[in-house]
């Protein structure tokens, strides 16, 4: 563990120190022995000129690995400012899927073309591979896959397969899963384990599994991650509609996606627009204007929706004037409704993401959540009643408050499950139904419930 | 893809149909060809008697794989109701880490002992391995690891290493990472790639990497997952304090943890107590009383905290009586504060989980978030001002509302970053600082800000 990350703080302090001097020797010494992921992390925290200076001093292989680990903003800056020849040599080192990812960070099409051209001058086939990957939509299996997999022929013997493995030593990304191809068509898979168990002269056609689990190139990456997690795959082959094997997606890509999707879901659930510039940037790297931009849209929308509460209260102006104590409980009641609704919506959206809830479960979900809300409301209602009586609010108002709690909790849980279910029906991403959105919807409707119950029970309002 | 999960609905319908008849033949036919993960998923949706009937009809290997995939409740029920001999044979098939996980689901110590004794009668060494794993704390690397790794000796040649690989064919969980041991001490690692590249007579001591990255057995599983994701490891060796190699944690365990931790974080962020019975159960499997239990604690706590708003408003009873329109804006102002605070707290907690924020960054974080809040508040304040003027609320009240928006947004963002930072300082898990908690804290304080600004500006209140 000594060489990992415990030292990134030391690296950062050390770098800032030696960067003050124009001498390169101490810089090289400080960087020595650090993992590319750690160098990338510290470079993201440096200012642009320092970061490019560090980048230029790294040897080619390490620079390529660091480039692969950097967030979009820093990578884009380096690509824009490094000499084209060095970029081409760096990209030449990395696998095509990583190059595609890096090149896609560059926003200008012209610059992208220039980089790909540079790579083509050096390694025309690699550049072609990258172009093919870039043709797939971002966020799909096609963009994640690598063509660095072990491919064997069905009539090979186990012994000769081992020799083939050796020829893939530098290239293949995994040896756990081996693929048997006829021409370009995937006809079977076998594991290294199967190969190790086999007799030397056994044919692969006997050893391989023909019942292949494969994914299409346009499968959403979140779905790829879920399949790998559920079925414990170490790699999944990507097969085109004509049966051609295009590449494999490996479990380590899935780990990165899971982390990224987790951030995305958290942002969506908190009503933050999940734009890549903020989503994939480390906390301090995103400029404040971009953070504001990612948050302000939903804030304004929710603000406008929330103004409905003003209209509701204005409508009941007379009641609020006559019993001013009614207003004391407004934040408590809508706050509790918002909390119950938040709990429900997060539970439902998570269950949907894990495919635990299907379309035809809608009624079961609604009944279950409304029932849960009712139970929670009854428990809280009793507490509210006792507390209000102790505070000397009198029986009628205490009754109004506690009945409202019951109704609002049941209602909030209904809204909290109904809205994501509706979104799915309307083909809207349910993860966009954030907790603040549910809270906002519950606020105005909760007030209507409250003031109507008050109207029914309080004599002063008759 | 045909055999995977698309068919779980069909499997469920088919099973429910054939389970009506006491005849076993159609049941066997319906189950044929399904993946254990899919059978487990459907079994969780059946009632207990049906689920054990399905479980008993599966052949040993499939039953073991299904048992490994089931959620705690269903697994516990089966372990409590299946004959001890069959349980012992099932556990005998699974690797020790999976058995430890299954056995730890059983809540009664007596039953646990009975199961381990049954396994010991059949496979004393396996039972011993499981006991050793159970000695590690749940949620640590020690509980996740497997001892099914390829171990080699430093003086072996590359050629003889291949022969050793063959002897591990049935046993090892991965062949990508190979471990070189001297006695029980880990002295080097090498990848299968390195071995494939080597000359047949090269010694492993020449080939292996001596600068080993290892983890201690008590490392938190979330931390294990983060390291694997950051450094793209396929497996990490777990080394005890005396240098003994205890096992490896593989990337596929990490995928499961990431998914589980993701659910846990979502629950915590929504003020749901993340107890295992609800956390790891599929949506419909958790009984409602347990769902209520997981939600009611935080709801009551937040309710009690939120009653502070009643006290604040009661304190300003006179002001609310004199200008009843002040109460119209209460939900709008505290709602907006709550939304801004939710955005901030989720951003901060995510950045903390990814270690993008460190302890000494506290002041930078606070300034950044307060600044963001101020900017957001200014934007929303302008909108609020224009809207309030158009609605004919008059200049003074419009000014009060829009100034409050500015102040509340800046304040909410400050609270939203300060509280998780404080929690970390106090060694409390910052993920427990939920969005509803921040919203609740902002509600009472936001009202104080609002009514004080009103007091300063509105002539009617002087």
Number of strands of chain A: 5
Helix content of chain A: 55-70%
Remind me, CATH topology of the largest domain in chain A? Tetracycline Repressor, domain 2
Largest sheet of chain A: 3 strands, mixed
Question: Strand percentage of chain A, roughly?
Answer: 5-15%
Number of alpha- plus pi-helical segments of chain A:
24
The top level CATH class name of the largest domain in chain A: Mainly Alpha
Tell me which CATH architecture of the largest domain in chain A applies here: Orthogonal Bundle
Mean pLDDT of chain A: 89
* Helix/strand order of chain A: HHHHHHHHHHHEHEEHHHEEHHHHHHHHH
* General form of chain A: globular
| Computed structural class of chain A | mainly alpha
The unreliable regions of chain A are none
What's the assembly state of these chains? homodimer
**Hey, which two chains have the biggest interface?**
A-B, 118 and 118 residues
| Cα separation of the termini of chain A | 74 Å
Number of structural domains of chain A: 3
The order of strands across the largest sheet of chain A is: 1-2-3
CATH superfamily placement of the largest domain in chain A: SLC41 divalent cation transporters, integral membrane domain
Radius of gyration of chain A: 30 Å
């Amino acid at each position: 563990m000594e060489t990992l990350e415990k030292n990134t703080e030391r690296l950062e302090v050390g770098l800032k120190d030696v960067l003050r001097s124009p001498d390169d020797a101490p810089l090289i010494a400080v960087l020595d022995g650090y993992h590319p992921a750690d160098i990338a992390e510290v470079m993201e925290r440096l200012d642009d000129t320092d970061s490019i200076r560090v980048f230029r001093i790294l040897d080619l292989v390490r620079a390529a690995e660091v480039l692969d680990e950097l967030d979009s903003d820093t990578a884009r800056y380096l690509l824009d400012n490094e000499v084209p020849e060095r970029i081409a040599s760096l990209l030449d080192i990395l696998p095509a899927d990583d190059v595609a990812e890096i090149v896609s960070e560059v926003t200008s099409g012209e610059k992208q073309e220039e980089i790909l051209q540079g790579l083509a001058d050096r390694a025309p086939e690699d550049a072609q591979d990258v172009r093919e990957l870039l043709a797939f939509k971002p966020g799909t299996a096609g963009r994640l896959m690598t063509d660095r997999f072990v491919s064997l022929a069905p009539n090979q013997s186990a012994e000769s397969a081992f020799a083939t493995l050796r020829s893939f030593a530098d290239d293949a990304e995994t040896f756990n899963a081996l693929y048997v191809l006829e021409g370009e068509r995937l006809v079977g898979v076998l594991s290294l384990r199967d190969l190790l168990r086999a007799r030397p002269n056994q044919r692969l056609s006997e050893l391989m599994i023909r019942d292949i689990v494969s994914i299409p190139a346009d499968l959403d990456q979140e779905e790829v991650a879920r399949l790998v997690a559920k079925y414990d795959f170490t790699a999944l082959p990507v097969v085109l509609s004509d049966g051609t094997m295009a590449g494999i997606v490996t479990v380590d890509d899935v780990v990165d996606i899971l982390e990224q999707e987790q951030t995305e879901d958290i942002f969506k659930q908190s009503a933050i627009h999940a734009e890549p510039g903020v989503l994939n940037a480390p906390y301090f790297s995103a400029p404040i204007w971009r953070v504001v931009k990612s948050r302000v849209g939903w804030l304004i929308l929710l603000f406008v929706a929330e103004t409905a509460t003003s209209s509701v209260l204005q409508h009941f102006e007379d009641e609020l004037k006559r019993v001013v104590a009614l207003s004391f409980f407004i934040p408590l009641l809508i706050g509790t409704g918002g909390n119950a609704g938040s709990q429900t919506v997060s539970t439902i959206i998570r269950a949907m993401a894990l495919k635990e809830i299907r379309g035809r479960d809608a009624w079961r979900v609604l009944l279950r959540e409304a029932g849960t809300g009712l139970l929670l409301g009854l428990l809280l209602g009793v507490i509210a009643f006792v507390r209000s009586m102790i505070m000397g609010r009198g029986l009628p108002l205490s009754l109004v408050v506690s009945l409202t709690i019951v109704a609002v909790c049941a209602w909030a849980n209904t809204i909290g499950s109904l809205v994501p279910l509706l979104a799915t029906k309307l083909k809207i991403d349910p993860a966009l139904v954030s907790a603040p959105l549910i809270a906002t919807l519950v606020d105005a409707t909760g007030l209507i419930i409250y003031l109507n119950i008050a109207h029914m029970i309080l004599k002063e309002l008759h």
